Amino acid sequence: MTNSASISHDSIKAAPISSPQSGVDLTEATLRRQRLVDPSPAEDECCLVQIYPPDVIEGMLLLEEHEFSIGRSPETDLPLFDNSVSRQHAMLIRGQEGYLVRDLGSTNGTFVNEKPVQSDCSLRSGDTIRIGSFLFRFLSAGCVETQYHETVYSAMTRDALTGTMNKRYLMEALNREIARSTRANMELSVVMLDIDHFKSINDTYGHLVGDEVLRTFGIRVGEICRSDDLLARYGGEEFCLLLAATGHEDAREMAERCRHAVADAPFDTAAGALPITASFGFAVLNPSKPKSVSGLLGAADQQLYEAKRSGRNRVCG
């Protein structure tokens, strides 16, 4: 990244490969992606930053048209070659008071801040826009630089789908906490959490409903966590909860509280209310016999396997 004082307005063409889902030659689409160098946009300029799947390092998409179309068709201004996106999915329209988003009768809907767009919806800087399985952040002029860098940092440390921390951040935090607990002679607990029968949810209701379940799971468990706990998405439907200065009984109590938060009320989804349960396995670090990160996670994972093997929707440790 150079130290230029402006955004480059050169067009960046998509790589000459074909989408495995649509078979469309991606060279048909020219994505007007503007690489962010040192953002100093004009007062009326607005931008989209793709945050899921993560693509923020490549820069931002500068909105220059009064009408900006998004869809699976290569003829749209922003083609998204994924079956979760309709050919003509949504339109961003510049009005007198800024941009608004309009759903174009898409199959899976358009969402602003996770609420479905029923009619034209005004956009405010910082709003998230979901198009199928893609998630964007809308940024207006005046605060682009600050919010862009915040978005980049968030994308590097958080899982965009669930809002929890990501695996990279978790591993770095575990290394620090194990060293700190060993020096201070304090216990440390790690809980592995896994949504039961998640594959059947995806197979039965589709991946968008699966994404809803993952988001709600992250919210419910996150609400149980204490201010110094760390919840991270470990991969797929598996999460990890890092509990500093926490021994065996407190770790079990926390895991049980999380289990009840998940199981006691169905998850609201586009397919209706779904009963969801999860399995939990935890391990406690003995500071006099410290384990490596992989050793501690492996011990918790073994307990998670035992919870799955013995019937699911339970805590083992």
TrEMBL record:
Pfam families: FHA, GGDEF
Protein EC: 2.7.7.65
Region (Disordered): 1-23
Organism: Rhodopirellula maiorica SM1
GO CC terms, sorted: plasma membrane
Protein name in the entry: diguanylate cyclase
Gene Ontology biological process terms from the UniProt entry: cell adhesion involved in single-species biofilm formation; negative regulation of bacterial-type flagellum-dependent cell motility
Enzyme class: transferase
Catalytic activity: 2 GTP = 3',3'-c-di-GMP + 2 diphosphate
Lineage top rank: taxon: Bacteria
Domain GGDEF: 186-317
